[in-house]
Amino acid sequence: MSIEEKQIEIVDEFSMFEDWMQKYDYLIDLGKSVPLIDERYKTPDQVIKGCQSQVWLNAASNGGKVTFTADSDAIITKGIISLLIRVLSNEKPEDIVNADLHFIDEIGLKEHLSPTRANGLLAMVKQMKFYALAYQSKND
Amino acid sequence: MDIAKIRSDFPILSEVVYDKPLAYFDNAATSQKPQVVIDAISNYYTHINSNIHRGVHYLSQRATDAFEETRKKVQKHINAEHIHEVIFTKGTTDGINLVASSFGQNFIGEGEEVIISNMEHHSNIVPWQLICAQRGAQLKVIPITDQGELDMDTFRKLLNKNTALVAINHISNSLGTVNPVKEIVEAAHEVGTAVLIDGAQSAPHMPIDMQDIGADFYTFSAHKMCGPTGLGVLYGREEWLEKMPPYQGGGEMIKEVFLDHSTWADLPYKFEAGTPNISEVVVFGHALDYLNGIGWDVIQEREQALLHYATEKLKQIEGLKIYGEARNKASVISFLLEGIHPYDTGMVLDKLGVAVRTGHHCTQPVMDRFEIPGTVRASFAFYNTEEEIDRLIEGLKRVKTMFA
Fold it and tell me: Number of CB pairs < 8 Å for A and B?
């Protein structure tokens, strides 16, 4: 499934929720099932600091595709991370670099990615693309 | 006090967010504005707008009069001895930076010390770190107790003839603690040390008396007092302001400019470079009138009642811990639900229409002191109600079940 198809699938899933509490309940469930980062990568230099919550991110290359693992100290943040990982993990570096993550806005979570929220998520997306870029140039 | 009447003065309080009535508990960050203040903005641009102090024309005179009228109101409100001790700034942070820069460059010497506390807002930490680094001075920190009060014994031990300045907040924005500023000023003055008080969180809650407190500098922001953003006040004692050089150059702060040197305007204009926030200053006068109209004793009594009501209710929630249990507190409560990140709590409360602040509240050293990532903070203003607090409590119970 392409990045675009995965985004459409998520938007579809979220359209079933009638209110915010249902969305958050779902994100909390997802948050509990994030592909957790290996503890040895949960170091200060892997942390993406935000005013609100902290995010740890690691990337690895597998047969020309990039896989991500992550963690956060806040569960809603973890839930959103799991969506980002679902969309961007196991994809080719160039597809990750060029991805337009419009689904975040469409499922009503744009506020979590606004730069002023400073919760680490926007920085995390940048970091994911940065890793992809690094793998892309390695492959070239 | 007629709470329904007061709430009707603030149109934003009847906003509906996510189909829920708004309960606004982020007053420590900024207060809401009454209609009279909102109208004053429109009135200023409709009838007064002009640059001040230099125009010969009618409007310029009118704007100047309105601008200086607010200075008079501020002087009266804070009981400053002289009107020229009232300087308009961009806000509290700007006021602190003015003192750090101007006082710091001249009266903080190599090997000297500046004392702050563990409960300062970043705005009252970073400027001192910068100036201490520039001047080769040392920063000393007053620790805080488990209750969130200043350790006054250690403060007295830190204080010595080498202390160039004590910079301390009147009320902690993250713990709600009301600090004994008069006692701090007296102790500092005994060893000949000047004191700056960060009044960002005190000015909205109580009348402030400069001649009683005796501080050398006192600074606060208009937007936390039902006034406009982008405006603050720095009170400075005349004897210091006379000795201090200008903070910024240009505009109203000059007397004469030659190509090789310049001379400075008298106080307070020496410290008000460029075109000031004229509209904000004029509007702030209306905010002060509004607050005076309600009465500061009424405001204090009301906010203390809300603080006690909320504290009692919050204490009944199992697994909820309040950070900051000083004997003397303002209407600010920081807390955490056991095992639940403050960001998660805040996000769910938001969707229930309850506006709180989460995070470190720009006081990271406080969070480090208590070894927590941040807190959820509910800060009350006189226009809040017990019913709104009940909704906060209900919301927190909901959060507990969701994250269990």
Answer: 38
**Residue ranges of chain B whose CB lies within 8 Å of a chain A CB:** 18, 341-344, 347-348, 351, 358-360, 373-374, 398, 402-403
Q: What is the pLDDT of residue A12?
A: 96
A75 vs B341, B359, B374: nearest CB: B341
Supply A128's token pair: 């994911």
Q: Mean pLDDT, chain B, as a whole number?
A: 96
Q: Which amino acid, B348?
A: V
Cα–Cα distance measured from residue B256 to residue B254, given in angstroms and rounded to the nearest whole number: 6
Summarize pLDDT for B24-68 with one digit per residue, the tens.
999 999 999 999 999 999 999 999 999 998 778 999 999 999 999
Q: Residues 69..88 of A with a Cβ closer than 8 Å to B: which?
A: 73-77
Closest CA to B342 of B379, B375, B314: B375
What count of other Cβ atoms lies within 10 Å of the Cβ of residue A109?
19
Beta-carbon separation of A24 and B402 below 8 A? yes
- Interacting residues of B383 by C-beta distance below 8 A, sequence separation 6+: B3, B6, B7, B9, B10, B13, B32
Q: Check if the beta carbon of residue B168 is closer than 8 Å to that of residue B198.
A: yes
Band of the pLDDT at A119, cuts 50, 70, 90? low
A127 close to A119: Cβ distance less than 8 angstroms: no
Which listed residue (B126, B362, B372, B393) is catalytic? B362
- Angle between the A75-88 and A121-139 helix axes, to the nearest 10 degrees? 30
Q: Edge-to-edge strand order for the sheet containing B332-337?
A: B320-323, B332-337, B375-379, B357-359
Q: What is the pLDDT of residue A50?
A: 66
ipTM of this predicted structure: 0.88
> B213 pLDDT exceeds 70?
yes
| B47: number of Cβ within 10 Å | 11
With tokens 């056991």, the residue in question is B338
- pLDDT band at residue A118 under the 50/70/90 scheme: low
- Pick the residue from chain A with its C-alpha nearest to B361: A51
pLDDT for the residue numbered A124: 86
Catalytic residue IDs of A = 51
